[in-house]
Amino acid sequence: MKFREHRQVSFCIRHDLRLEFPQIENGVGMAREFIDRFEEQSSHFPHRIKTRLELTLVSGVLAAPIINRWVIQRLNEIENLTAKVQTVKNEFYGNSVTVTGLLTGQDILNQLRDQAAGDIILLPANCINFDGIFLDDWTPAMLQTRLKKPIEIIDNDFVTLIEKFK
Fold it and tell me: Which end of the chain is more exposed for a tag (fewer CB within 10 A), N or C?
């Protein structure tokens, strides 16, 4: 006679193990990793910077609410710093493509051209490849020339960025 034991199985997700799972690339894991890293970095931000500065962070549709909720809110707590997110829709590949990593220089130009873009435009590093080129063969320098605004590429290191203006 065979008996089967029926047990309740509980699952526990540990933050310290999540990087070992392949789901990190599915957007959800990347978002959580970004938020955790940003929260850790934000504890090192100064309370104020010397000169008034307005930053515009470029984002795809998918990440914009996360950028607004965590990054913009926290950066705006720094005296003399004003930050906003500019959500860019992907016209090049179609509006169903909502990730920042597939934005093109042309889409960024077309959607920032008539906006008050502040003093500096921040582009996430995943917008460009290792050669510094967008998917439409534009470069950040081409975009900077057309927008007439300085562009900084940011690879989620907000401490180093803020240090430049401290």
Answer: N
